[in-house]
Design goal:
The protein is mostly beta strands. The chain has a single domain, classed as Deoxyuridine triphosphatase (dUTPase) (Deoxyuridine 5'-Triphosphate Nucleotidohydrolase, Chain A, Distorted Sandwich). It is built from one helix and eleven strands, in the order ββββββαβββββ. The strands form four sheets. The protein has a four-stranded antiparallel β-sheet. The radius of gyration is 19 Å and the shape is globular. The mean pLDDT is 94.
């Protein structure tokens, strides 16, 4: 499935997101930086990508994920877990990164810093209920089936 996404370049050093392989579920976002950015251990930073998007429909959202290599090898992950880009947001896409390692990490201009995918959205219609249907699991959570 494909959706049309209009992209606005906001910074001279921005790159259009790219899929690295034909089977990639997400495209890579790059750092639109003027120079290297050092992220100290435990520090959080907002890294600009230099792009804004218009995918035109509330039927989709763009989700931003950490790159597995950056997270596992260098300790750079998204500080908010997963970033959500709503269909009506027109500002610059930024990646909120945190350095979970014990060493400073340097992000280079143009470095791939996060990945972004487009996913269908279902909007809930909430209704209050005095009772909920019973299930085998019930209220069990937080490791109720083991660690």
């Amino acid at each position: 499935m494909e959706i049309n996404v209009r992209i606005k370049i906001l910074r001279e050093n921005a790159a259009i997101p790219a899929y690295q392989t034909p089977g990639s579920a997400c495209c890579d976002l790059t750092a639109a930086l003027d120079g290297p950015l050092t992220v100290l251990p435990g520090e959080r930073v907002l890294v600009p990508t230099g792009i804004a998007l218009d995918f035109g429909s509330a039927e989709y959202a763009a989700l931003i994920f950490a790159r597995s290599g950056l997270a596992s090898k260098r300790g750079l992950a998204l500080s908010n877990g997963v970033g959500v880009v709503d269909s009506d947001y027109r500002g610059e896409i930024k990646a909120a990164l945190v350095n979970l390692s014990s060493e400073p990490q340097v992000i280079a201009p143009g470095e791939r810093i996060a990945q972004m995918g487009f996913f269908p959205v279902a909007r809930a219609v909430f209704e209050t209920a005095a009772e909920l249907d019973e299930t085998e699991r019930g209220a069990g959570g937080f490791g109720h089936t083991g660690v």
